[in-house]
Predict the structure.
Amino acid sequence: MKLPDKLYINGKWIGSTDGKAFSVTNPANMQVIGHLPVTSAQETLQAIEAAENALPQWSAALGKERSKIIRKLFELLIRDKEEFSKIIVAENGKALSEARNEVEYSSLFIEWFAEEAKRIYGDLVPSIKKGQRLFTIKQPVGVVAAITPWNFPLAMIVRKLAPALAAGCTMVIKPSEETPYSALKLAALCEEAGVPSGVVNVVCGDARIIGEAMTSSPKVRMLTFTGSTRVGKTLMAQCAGTVKKVTMELGGNAPFIVFDDANLQKAIDGLIASKVRNGGQSCICANRIFVHSKIIGAFSKELISAYKKLKIGDGLNENNNIGPMINPASARKIYDLIEDAKANKAEILYSADVTEQKKLSECYVAPAILLNHKVNSKIEQTEIFGPIISMFTFDTEEEVIARANASNYGLASYFYTQDKDRIWRVSEALEYGMVATNDVAISSEVACFGGVKESGLGREGGKTGILEYLEDKYIVMS
Ligand code: ADP
């Protein structure tokens, strides 16, 4: 696998101009897989300028013309699916099957927004005055800066890039320094697909310096961010100075509720799928598992026997379901949460043995199942971001809704029941941007993904996804 050693600015592959570089590590074995130049503030501004210069032509192209290029990008991504999946595994550590899912999921967003590029409609508004005609048209926001995380190094970029390009915006993307290669491979495919120079730029290096350059530049009209709530708040404050449009996909603390009338097998399958996905490192991962006290015994027994079957290790080995966490600090944070839960009387119902894996890398975490007996513990209020199932029991619907809503986050939520009236009641009562009943497959290109409260602003995907990258312009004709 050949990894690039340059960044992509204004249609050119740029090496280091001042000799500064950073390294990227494979968390499965802690080996350095490559080095990339550090983008300076000055170079970030150059990338922004390139995006600004490319804007008039790209935004004036017919939707149909942009659509063709984006469609080509979809085809190239499918062509390179296997190579792309291996890049994702090398920099992120996830299981190869998960990486393949990520490439496929990303390609569907590109295909979807290639189609949406042709369907950007305005409105004809009924007038209140004779001889006057009122219209609205939709126009691209302008230069968009995107800052993305490491957990889905391709998908989190594509969910922004595909609608932004479809809308006629140009972009400067800063991927996570832990996983920059997916972004660069995507930039290479954009180039091959015929995306003009300057329309897509990729910078990377020092997040704070690049973030400040992006947020303070008046040329950047929108910042789209996926990452932690803490950094999201900082970036929102930084954007205030130039009143940028912002969209934010931030943290979550998803409740996963199993009522006593649930199909237990379905609930167990769903919970495991949620935890296996990227080793639990996703913002929509089931985090607080509320199980009705009547069924906790049967549920735990089946869950443990299913969890025992998981295989942990290097994602490149196709037998493994769960890879390492992204870095040693993330693994330590998870172990600290478990220690705190234990100090708060949590029972460890199961913990896998990862002694062998830890000889290769400190990033491995043993998948475990905990039963908590206290509420408001650290593990209840924190996004675990790992393969730890942390359970609580409850007795009534009212109680569990109140506990599920007692969080500053409001991204995804899940519940299992066979009672159709309860499905309506609980779906409406949960204060979350997304609710899944009897399922965990919540995210796809056709639906709007996003959160309320401190989980974010704006939606990605679906028919609303492209609207984030467009402004309404109102025109009166007398
Ligand atoms: P995570 O916990 O998922 O790593 P972060 O919010 O730390 O979430 O990181 C998400 C993205 O935000 C990454 O690309 C990271 O480099 C970037 N980032 C972190 N701190 C800052 C900052 N102060 N300014 C701009 N970007 C930042």
User: Anything to note?
Assistant: The pocket of adenosine-5'-diphosphate is lined by residues 147-150, 174, 176-177, 207-208, 211, 227-228, 231, 234-235 (CB under 6 Å).
